[in-house]
UniProtKB/TrEMBL annotation:
Species of the source: Halospeciosus flavus
All copies of domain DDH, residue ranges: 25-155
DHH-CID domain: residues covered: 196-279
Designated name of the protein: DHHA1 domain-containing protein
Domain annotation DHHA1: ranges: 367-463
InterPro entries with a match to the protein in the record: DDH_dom (IPR001667), DHH_CID (IPR048515), DHH_sf (IPR038763), DHHA1_dom (IPR003156), SSDNA_exonuclease_RecJ (IPR051673)
Alphabetized Pfam families for the sequence: DHH, DHH_CID, DHHA1
Length: 468
């Protein structure tokens, strides 16, 4: 059986076999939306296959975290959404007889190899846009369980969307085939529509007002303008005295809204590529209650980031495992706090301004922005006043007394021109006594405090070389 990503079928079969060979497995995963959904897929499929397991989360799989993994005493460790980038360290543990690693990841592999390694990049599949960590874990789940894993495709889509793998508002490559499997078994609906964040939970006027994806004059950032625009359309904006959401509209109303918004954008001189970005594919989790965050893949991803990046991965995992009630209440509380932190963080960056080098721009938030969300803030700040869209951005935040975390973000256009942030951050960090990695378009590193300037210089130079 080939599964949804034929290129990976052999590796997936071998990894599944290694898992079946043990009766207890430790799952180790990353603390973001993709890592949590990976763990959710791994945990449910191991349970279905009758394999005992425990789940361990880590912010960054460095040498000391790998010591902790080894100390658990599990003979088989399944790493999801990380592991490839730390392969050299993992292989050292394997050679020492500490554990047998099985890896389902999509990060740039370090220079080493091991037998049970499932990563799209090893088979020519794009790991930054076509398959996420959760997608790789799903491929493994399909090898382990066959068709009985197909309902887990919904979580794989949340992981991919949460990892920002969409291009022009929709998934591509292997991710599409995974989404199709979800549609086939009824856990997922896909539909062309407005590509704005908050379709399930934001009242219509706020959906439009807050839409920072595309700037539509007189609507974006303008509550009165957004309300006037909605009033002018043949769309019922209220029902029973309450604002309706995108999810509440019928098909006709959705079409009316999208075409009016496009017309407005065109008339106001919004560039064609940005107008196109108003429309995309919506990934809806069919089994979730309408009007809740979990119904929309993108909002689901934000809920997960709101848990794990605040040391509450347990809450996010519970949600991925289908627990509602208390787990969901706790997640929603964390979500409110997360949204406040993001908005404060972005405002701070805009007020302080970024420092421009020749090829990159950067800010240092010190203790003002949590290191676990500094990358999300950096990404959101791009395009705001004073923050250039076409220049890679670096954001620093203190990690502990000795180290600084740095997150880097860029655009797909820059990647097409030769940029690879993963290599740049790894090399620059290693040169100043730290380490890093990630993807071409989004990467991170840890560097010793006090080395920030030297690090920026190296990054600037290397980025300049790549883009020349
Ligand atoms: O470790 P992992 O692969 O799960 O994390 C990828 C990170 O890169 C996510 O935080 C995601 O939001 C970010 N990303 C981004 N812009 C892109 C692609 C990914 O900010 N275009
Ligand atoms: O933490 P942040 O969201 O900036 O991470 C962006 C990407 O870089 C993620 O895929 C993450 O796994 C990777 N990363 C890494 N090594 C680090 C920090 C981040 O590979 N030290
Ligand atoms: Zn990932």
């Amino acid at each position: 059986m080939n599964g949804p990503v034929p290129e990976l079928a052999d590796r997936a079969d071998r990894c599944a076999e290694a898992l079946r060979d043990d009766d207890a497995v430790l799952v180790a995963s990353h603390i973001d939306a993709d890592g949590l959904t990976s763990a959710g897929i791994a945990s449910q499929s191991l349970a279905r296959a009758g394999i005992d397991h425990e789940v361990f989360f880590s912010k960054q799989l460095d040498a000391s975290e790998l010591e902790r993994v080894a100390a658990t005493g599990y003979e088989t460790v399944l790493f999801t959404d990380f592991g490839s980038g730390q392969l050299d360290h993992i292989v050292a543990h394997e050679e020492a007889g500490d554990f047998v690693p099985v890896i389902a990841d999509h990060h740039q592999p370090a220079d080493a190899d091991t037998e049970y390694h499932l990563n799209p990049l090893l088979e020519g599949v794009d790991g930054s846009s076509d398959l996420s960590g959760a997608g790789a874990t799903y491929v493994l789940a399909r090898a382990l369980l066959g068709d009985d894993a197909k309902d887990l495709a919904a979580l794989a889509v949340v992981g991919a969307v949460g990892d920002r793998q969409t291009t022009d508002g929709e998934l591509t490559g292997a991710n599409v085939r995974i989404a199709e499997e979800g549609v086939e078994v009824g856990v997922l609906d896909t539909e062309k529509g407005l590509a704005l964040y908050g379709k399930q939970t934001r009242p219509l006027h706020k959906l439009l007002e807050y839409a920072s994806e595309v700037y539509v004059p007189g609507i974006t950032g303008d509550q009165q303008g957004a309300m006037r625009f909605l009033d002018s359309l043949d769309v019922e904006t209220h029902r029973d005295g309450e604002w309706r959401t995108w999810a509440d509209l019928d098909d006709e109303e959705r079409r009316t809204l999208v075409s009016a918004l496009i017309q407005r954008a065109v008339r106001n001189g919004v560039p064609a590529d940005q107008v196109d970005a108003l429309v995309g594919t919506t990934y809806t989790l069919a089994d979730e209650v309408a009007g809740t965050e979990l119904r929309d893949a993108s909002e689901f991803g934000t809920v997960l980031n709101a848990t794990a990046r605040y040391e509450r991965a347990d809450v996010g995992l519970a949600v991925c495992l289908g627990e509602r009630g208390e787990a969901l209440d706790a997640a929603q509380e964390l979500l409110r706090e997360h949204k406040r932190n993001l908005s404060r963080g972005v405002s701070w960056v805009v007020e302080e301004g970024v420092t421009r080098e020749q090829h990159v721009q950067w800010f240092h938030a010190g203790d003002r922005i949590r290191e676990t969300i500094v990358g999300i803030v950096a990404g959101m700040a791009v395009g705001e006043e004073g923050v250039d869209r076409d220049t890679p951005i670096l954001g620093f935040g203190y990690k502990d007394d000795e180290n600084v975390k740095v997150s880097a973000r860029a655009t797909h256009d820059l990647v097409e021109r030769g940029l690879d942030l993963s290599t740049v951050l790894r090399e620059a960090a290693q040169a100043v006594g730290g380490d890093g990695g990630g993807h071409t378009v989004a990467a991170g590193a840890t560097v010793p405090r006090g080395k920030e300037e030297e690090f920026v210089e190296r990054v600037d130079e290397h980025v300049g070389e790549q883009l020349s």
